[in-house]
Amino acid sequence: MKKVCMIFIFVFSITILLFGCSNEKEDMKEDFGLEKIQKIEVSSVENPELILNVIDNKDGVNEFVNTLKVDKWIIMDSPSSVTKENTYKMFQEDTVKLGESNTDEKELKQVATIITYKDSPFINFKTKKLNFSFKVPKDVAEYLSNNDN
Fold it and tell me: How far apart are CA 61 and CA 64, in angstroms?
C-alpha cells in the first residue's frame, strides 16, 4: 500500500509539473523585447545627424511601444517604390554581467532601429543580426509618421 501511494504521488507531481510548463508557453506573445527600451531617438533619413525628437521618459517609451501593436505586424517585403522617411533608434542599458554591480551607471547601447516609409504602412525593423520588413496597421503607420515633432 505504501508503494502504491508513493507511485501515485510521484505520477501526480510529474503531471502537475508538465501542465504548468505547457500553460507558460501558451501565454507567450510575439515580442521583440521592446519593453526594455529606455530611450528612442527620431531622425530623418535625409539628415540622420539631426535628431527630431527624443523619447527618454518611461511613460513616453511605454506609450510608444504600446502604440506599435507588434502583435499585429505582418512580415512582408516592402515595395521598392516607397521612400524612406524617419529612423527610430532604440537604446537600452547593456545587460549586467557576473561580477558587475547593479548600481553602476551603464551607457545606453543601440539595440534596434525602425525605418518608416512615406505614405506607406510598411516599416523595416533591424537589430544587430536581424532585418525584417513588416506591414503594420494603418494607425501605427500614421503614429510613426507623425511622431517626429
Answer: 5
**Does pLDDT of 38 surpass 80?**
yes
pLDDT level of residue 28 (50, 70, 90 thresholds): very low
Residue 137 pLDDT exceeds 90: yes
**Contact residues for 56 (Cβ-Cβ < 8 A; gap 6+):** 38, 39, 40
Structural contact between residues 70 and 136, judged by C-beta atoms closer than 8 angstroms? no
- Give burial (CB, 10 Å; 0-12/13-18/19+) of 105: exposed
Contacts of 102 (CB under 8 A, 6+ apart): 96
User: Residue 25 belongs to what H/E stretch?
Assistant: helix 2-26
Joined together, the cell numbers standing for residue 24 give 507558460
| Coil vs helix vs strand at 43 | strand
How many whole angstroms separate alpha carbon 27 and alpha carbon 13? 22
Nearest Cα neighbor of 34 from 7, 6, 65 is 65
| CB contact at 8 A, 135 and 148 | no
Between CA 63 and CA 130 the distance in angstroms is 24
| Residue type present at position 32 | F
